[in-house]
Design a protein that fits this description.
Layout (H helix, E strand, L loop, with lengths): L5 H10 L1 H7 L10 H14 L1 H17 L5 E9 L8 H19 L1 H5 L3 H7 L17 H18 L4 H4 L2 H13 E8 L13 E5 L19 E3 L3 E11 L9 E8 L8 H11 L5 E3 L7 H10 L2 E3 L40 E5 L4 E6 L1 H6 L9 E2 L5 E6 H13 L2 H7 L5 H12 L9 H30 L3 E6 L2 E6 L9 H15 L6 H9 L6
Parallel strand pairs: 1-7, 7-8
Antiparallel strand pairs: 1-5, 2-3, 4-5, 5-6, 9-10, 10-12, 11-12, 13-14
């Protein structure tokens, strides 16, 4: 909740009375060593108990506060693990340095077989990085070519060594070679003034930046990190929360960590399916255009949720402004209402092909002959004059969404999505979600789940504390001028935010009984007296 380091957590647990009271611990129980905390985190990751904690506590908060989960909103936010943002040249240099350090530590004899000139380009005698990757931008392409050749040399040198091949960092070298470099037929040697000009050429060149995939290796210290041209490097977190609950706080109902290189479109259905599984499915889910593909809208309809989102992209320009196209017809993809043409004539018959998911709408020939738009209508005409519009349920839904998007009702409903833009910075600034202290998706995911449930607990505690303060009885105080009534309130000006929240948690835990066993359960795990 307070984005503390391990050392800060252990210190506050042992010496801060507010933490002990909030967790319901006696003085003789409030101690824990660093190794125990490490082992607990390992168990947490292996058992995925972080998901269980988030879901169980969130579901109890929703039920306990009477939060209506019928309407929810969905968004994604970019986060970073504990990594440095490397340039392409720095990525090569750091990956090679990491491999050399690991090899020197594990098998110094194998390390010594590498030419000293190559080793010194990336690794100092004390193990620190060199300045080989710190050059002006105009010199970077030449240095990058040298790095690519060095990666090939290292991979090729240990290709037949089974022990080195099992090293994770050797796998990073191979991945870097495959993703960032191109193997050619003729050897390429360094030119004059290149760092490897005196060494034999190797058959490798550097790929163009546009040819490198966005899911390529971004750092050897966190291989799960990917890249987005819009947001940079890191992870994506999908966040869903309730909306429209008035004074009752909105609760985060779903979080998940996804790859930054993936589209939000791919995350929509898993979010809704998870909410359905937990029994808090929304009838209405509001999201931005990135989530709202027509395929997702149809899939959400099948699950029983209406996805309210604008249509991405734009309508193609008309060649002829006066031409009546099939996109101008209103076709109900559900089949509940009859199709209508731009002249407001209703179809006399409709045929649905469930296998091919096509719709055929028939318009009476006599009516079309009298229509003032008849000459400009591009819909197919049969011999008897009947006009037949052929479309698909997906195309019909797309046009229906574009029409609905122009209405005031849609704008009013979609405006509610903006509220989640305050939740993302709250998670990042108040709970440290923007920069996670760990690396790797296996460790980042528990941090995201636990920070999110901490946010929910904080919102619940704040709401209950404010409600209790509003209904608190007044205390009678004696003054020199007589007796006056004054509400008993605590001064927030002289107390820290952490202290206030811990006191509120203690009060809620004791008076409302929302979580009578969770803190004790977690602490028993820390002490080795329980199993996840």
């Amino acid at each position: 909740m307070f984005d503390l380091t391990d050392e800060e957590v252990l210190f506050n647990l042992e010496y801060n009375l507010a933490y002990q009271v909030a967790l319901g611990l006696d003085l003789d129980e409030a101690s824990c060593c660093q190794k125990t905390l490490h082992n607990f985190r390992v168990k947490l990751i292996q058992s995925q108990a972080d998901v269980l904690v988030f879901r169980s506590l969130t579901d109890r908060i929703v039920a306990g506060l009477g939060v209506n989960a019928g309407k929810q909103r969905l968004d994604s936010t970019h986060i970073l693990s504990n990594i440095a943002r490397l340039t392409r040249l720095s990525l090569f240099c750091e990956t090679i340095r990491t491999f050399l350090c690991s090899l020197q530590k594990s098998w110094s004899s194998k390390f010594d077989t590498i030419p000293a000139s190559l080793r010194r380009r990336y690794l100092r005698d004390d193990g620190r990085e060199t300045r080989f990757g710190d050059v002006a931008s105009r010199e970077a392409p030449r240095r990058l070519a040298v790095c690519a050749r060095d990666v090939w040399r290292l991979v090729d040198r240990f290709r037949g060594d089974s022990k080195v091949r099992r090293m994770q960092v050797y796998g990073f070298l191979k991945r870097l070679l495959e993703e960032q470099c191109e193997i050619v037929t003729a050897p390429v040697a360094g030119v004059e003034n290149d760092a490897d000009a005196s060494e034999p050429g190797v058959p490798v060149t550097v790929k163009k930046p546009e040819d490198v995939r966005s899911d390529s290796l971004q750092t050897p210290h966190d291989p799960d990190v990917t890249y987005s041209g819009h947001k940079g490097k890191g992870y994506e977190v999908q966040v869903a929360e309730t909306l429209g609950n008035g004074e009752v706080p909105e609760i985060i109902t779903h979080v998940d960590v996804t790859r930054l290189c993936d589209s939000d479109e791919q995350a929509t259905i898993p979010v809704v399916e998870s909410l359905v599984e937990r029994g808090i499915q929304p009838q209405e889910m509001v999201a931005d255009a990135a989530f709202g593909s027509t395929a997702n809208v149809m899939a959400c309809q099948d699950l029983g949720t209406e996805l309210v989102a604008p249509v991405s992209g734009h309508v193609a320009d008309r060649v002829d402004d006066e031409e009546v196209r099939k996109e101008d017809f209103l076709v109900d993809p559900t089949g509940e209402n009859k199709s209508v043409c731009p002249a407001f004539h209703v179809a006399v018959r409709e045929e649905w092909d469930a296998d091919r998911r096509t719709i055929r709408c028939y318009f009476e020939g006599a009516t079309c002959n009298r229509c003032e738009l008849g000459e400009r209508c591009s819909v197919r005409r049969l011999k008897d004059g009947t006009r037949v519009l052929t479309t698909t349920d997906r195309s019909a839904l797309l046009e229906e969404r574009r029409f609905y998007e122009q209405t005031d009702e849609f704008r009013e409903r979609y405006a509610q999505r903006a509220g989640i833009e305050a939740t993302n910075p709250e998670l990042k600034r108040r709970h440290g979600l923007g920069r996670i202290r760990t690396r790797g998706v296996a460790r980042v995911r528990p941090a995201v789940y636990l920070k999110s449930v901490a946010c929910n607990i904080k919102r619940m505690v704040t709401y209950l504390a404010e409600r209790a303060a509003a209904t608190e009885p007044t205390a009678t105080m004696a003054t020199a001028g007589g007796r006056v009534d004054e509400r008993v309130t605590r001064s927030k000006s002289c107390r820290s935010p952490q202290g206030d929240q811990l006191r509120e948690i203690s009060t809620v835990r004791l008076e409302h009984g929302f979580f009578p066993g969770e803190s004790r359960f977690v602490f028993n795990i820390l002490q080795g007296r329980g199993a996840l």
